[in-house]
Each structure stands twice: as C-alpha cells, then as structure tokens.
From TrEMBL:
GO molecular function: ATP binding
Keywords (A to Z) from UniProt: ATP-binding, Nucleotide-binding
Pfam family, one: ABC_tran
Presence of keyword Signal: no
Organism taxonomic ancestry: Bacteria, Pseudomonadati, Pseudomonadota, Alphaproteobacteria, Acetobacterales
Top-level taxon: Bacteria
Protein name: ATP-binding cassette domain-containing protein
Domain ABC transporter: 1-217
Coiled-coil regions listed: none
Keyword Cytoplasm in annotation: no
Transmembrane region(s): none
Length: 217
C-alpha cells in the first residue's frame, strides 16, 4: 500500500511507498526508522486515522478498504493507541481519561473503579487520579496515555514513541507491560527511537527508510 498526504508537494513522492508486510496476530514488532521515515504515518494507517491512498490494508482480519462504518467503529474499539501527541482530554481527570473507554464499553462502574485504579497505580500515578492532565509532567501525561491505551486489554496495541518523555526505568516498566499484554495474545506495534530498549527486549522490527519498508523480520 501507499500513502500520500493531501496538499503535500507532489514532487516529494509518497510518504509511504509500496509497503507490503504481514504482521502475525499476537506478534510484537518495533517500528524503526529515522525522523520523517514514516513511522507515525504507518501507525496512523493501522489505527484507521488515515486510509491508504492505494493498496489493501487488513487489520485484525478486517479489510479496511471494504469495511462498513460500523465494522470500522468496532475495529477502533478493539485497538489501543498511544498517539505521539497523546490527545488526553484536558477537561477530564486522569481517572476519567482512562475510564472513558471502559464506560463506552458499558462496564459496571465498580469494575471500572478497580481496573482504572490498578492500571494507574501500575504506571505510578495512583496519587494523581483526580488531577487534570495539564498539571502533570510530560512523562506523567505519557503514562496516562499508555494506561488509557491498554486498560481494556485491546487485541491490537499501537504506540507511537510511548517512552519519549520517560526515564529508563519507567520506559522498561511500560514496555514490560506491553509484553504482558502481548503474552496474553495482543498484537503490539511500538514506534521508537530508543535503541537501548530495542536491544534489551529483542523482538523483530519493521524498519522504514524514507517511506519504504527496508526490513520486516
Ligand atoms: N499531516 C501531514 N501532512 C503532510 N505531510 C505529512 C503529514 N504528517 C507527516 N507528513 C510527512 O510525512 C513524512 C513521514 O512523517 P512521519 O511523521 O510519519 O515520520 P516519523 O518516522 O514518524 O518521524 P518522527 O520520528 O520524527 O516522528 C514526513 O516527510 C512528514 O513531513
């Protein structure tokens, strides 16, 4: 598949070109490449924030090109996403940001209380449940975004630079959390520049170079 952003200078070529890969269900893949190589764009396609300009995309067995809106909405609910710009809801507390997805899924409030509190404790924010995201540090906000992405144990987790604002110990803790989710069956893709993390945890990588996939295994 290929991706062009509307309005981008046509002489600069497509942002993603001839991407062809099959990520097995239950796999863990790093998404690597220099700044501007197309990592975020690839994750935006997989999270259905964008559609490919050409080619076929299948996510969790659903053909994105052909799927109806209801099927795409179901697919979005089965995906957890950590966006590079986090996209926390500023008017909601930390607790409510993380609880939102579980509420949309109709979970009973006592169960939500339990799951959200446990998840926020795990990421070290057990004392910040009631504050608004803007009063947190960058690293704390990043951990809220991660908690929100994984709290419903999604079959697909997409994380774009989820550890950029964290120290090494916290980064290791979060990737370990992703590994746990992966061991329970979720497919996990993590875009990162952190080579130390990649070396430490192993796992195959999708490597992008100027919009092309140069390695995927
Ligand atoms: N909304 C957009 N409109 C036009 N061009 C875009 C848009 N978003 C990204 N691009 C371009 O697409 C290319 C790939 O960008 P992308 O953000 O996917 O790279 P990246 O590998 O995630 O980079 P980084 O590591 O810096 O986050 C870049 O040339 C960028 O300028």
């Amino acid at each position: 598949m290929a991706l062009r952003y509307p309005g981008r200078d046509p002489n600069r070529g497509a942002v993603l070109q001839r991407i062809s890969a099959d990520i097995p269900s239950g796999g863990f893949r790093w998404v690597l490449g220099a700044s501007g190589a197309g990592k975020s764009s690839l994750l935006r396609l997989l999270s259905l924030s964008l559609k490919p300009t050409s080619g076929q995309l299948e996510v969790l067995g659903v053909s994105v090109n052909r799927a109806r809106r209801a099927a795409l909405a179901r697919l979005r609910r089965r995906t957890g996403t950590v966006f590079q710009d986090l996209r926390l809801l500023g008017e909601l507390s930390v607790f409510d940001n993380v609880a939102l997805r579980l509420r949309l899924d109709g979970l009973p409030e006592d169960r939500i209380e339990l799951e959200v509190t446990e998840m926020l404790r795990f990421v070290g924010l057990g004392r910040k449940l009631d504050v608004r995201p803007h009063s947190l540090s960058g690293g704390e906000q990043q951990r809220v975004a991660v908690a929100r992405a994984v709290v419903h144990r999604p079959p697909l987790l997409l994380a774009d630079e989820p550890t950029g604002a964290l120290d090494e110990k916290q980064a290791i803790r979060l990737i370990s959390l992703f590994e746990e989710l992966n061991q329970m069956g979720s497919t996990v893709l993590v875009a990162t520049h952190n080579e130390a993390l990649v070396r430490r945890f192993g796992h195959p990588a999708l490597v992008l170079e100027r919009g092309r996939l140069v390695s995927h295994g």
